[in-house]
Amino acid sequence: MTRRKPTRSEKSRPVFSARFLTFLVALGLAQWLFPAGGEAARVTIGWRPSAGATVAGYKVHWGGSARQYDWHANVGNRTTFTLKGLKESRVYHIAATAYDGQGRESRFSEELIYSVPKATGADQIAQDTDGDGFSDAWETGQGYDPLDAGSPPVPAGLLSPWVLFPTAGLTLAGPEAAASRTGVNLVIRGADDGIYQVEGSLFGGWGAWNALGGLTPSKPAAVEVSGELHVFVRGTDDGIYTSRRAGKTWTPWVEVPGGGLAASGPEALWFRDELHLFVRGIGDGIYLNRYNGSNWSGWSALGGMTIAGPEAAVFRGAPYLFVPGVSGTPYAGRIISPSRAEWISLPGATPSALGSALAEGVLYLVVRGLDDAIYVSYAFE
Question: Would you say residue 271 lies in a domain?
Fold first, then answer.
């Protein structure tokens, strides 16, 4: 996939001023359908909202040639759209525009050029010649070499099969995993909405579950900093609360400074000497609050929207996001710039957000299965 900027003639198009900073990205692999007339595919794209205060909505434009769009769709104020009926091996040029309340349109965004992988059946789609965890069809469609295991430079899938977590338990939301000095801390929302924690590792075994008190309707977040385990939860009032373990003692639950409300469970990541706390707001926007060891920065909007709380981890020297796709398929995305991630699909399915942690050179990825049981898989640095 590549993008190109508007030509000089396109820049001269009379439009309203929207500060249209939109970029387009494909949010997942092509999904194949088999209607009566033959094969067709669909792909979902997304974009950052315009910074203009007068923007009333967006239109998506696409066609078979650069800046020559045969179709368009008015998507209202949404920032994602699924293109359907795409033909295999065809190249599509996609752009977006914003419009105001009077119907005036902005200039085109940067152009996304998407090549639909060739499909000759499920086996063709799943073929992986170089064994790097990515199908040949996807690598070819994204401009990578299907014969080179180092292209693309992202984790080569999960190296172990999913197995039932060795310490019995049920969860109603995605589990959370946080690295500790002796292994991994796993924090879950129990079947009774209580908050529970267990510590252990692949090599040393797992301990018993500890009840932390309190209730949560969503997946918890956890991160260890200087030997202290910080846990964050969405309360039953949609507020964001935290408790901290120093040694064997847990502090009472308190609201995170800055207030705010969350529509799903939060996410925490230690990066560049600061604790980063991410939430999906009530309006589905993504917000960040940073803690430097003494003070919180307060909530700031990052732009973009989400339908589930993301999971973040630093692996092989790069930050990664793990999310459940719209069909329940898990995806891993390596963040290579503030506006771009390289996504791959992972095995299995989950109805909730994922959990991950890196400890002793092992990336632990934990999911809630469709049977509500807890499954874990591993990748090695």
Answer: yes
